[in-house]
Structures are given as structure tokens and as C-alpha cells.
Description:
Layout: H1 16-33, H2 50-58, H3 71-84
Amino acid sequence: MLSSPASAPTSAAPSRRTLRRLAVAALLLAPLAARPAPAADFDPRVITFGDARQEIKSTPVTQRPNRPLHVYGNTVRRRADRAVRPATSARR
């Protein structure tokens, strides 16, 4: 008796569905792997309490670390940093 080709796969190769799932997973996870590490002056805390809050409040805005959702302070620090840094291109 001859077995039909649809009965059982004879090779150990992965199926098309498995390969498709792996490709989709790789495409979805690729941007996460390419993210740069956070800057050294980045503070992940959005809201602080107690001593940490007092420490941040007593520090000048231009010297505080960047924090998520703190648009005003982050903008002030970015503009101050860009004003202090020398230009990278030579202008004549």
C-alpha cells in the first residue's frame, strides 16, 4: 500500500504556518530590540513623593533629570543644553 502525501509529513522541516508565525513575531519584536538605551540623565519616575520630590524641587530646572510627561522641564533643559553646546558644523 502506498500512503497518500497528505497523511503525514515525511520531512522534519517546519510548516509554512510556523514559519509565517516566526516571521510575524520577528517583525513585531524588531523595533523593541533597536531602541537605544535611556540617557544617563533620565529619571523614569513620573510622579515622586517625599524626599525625592523635595530633592527635585530644590534642584534648578536646567540641572534636573529628564522625566516622562514633564514637557515643560524637558523642553527647558533641551533648549539650555543646545544653547551651551558648540555647533558641530563650521559656519562661515
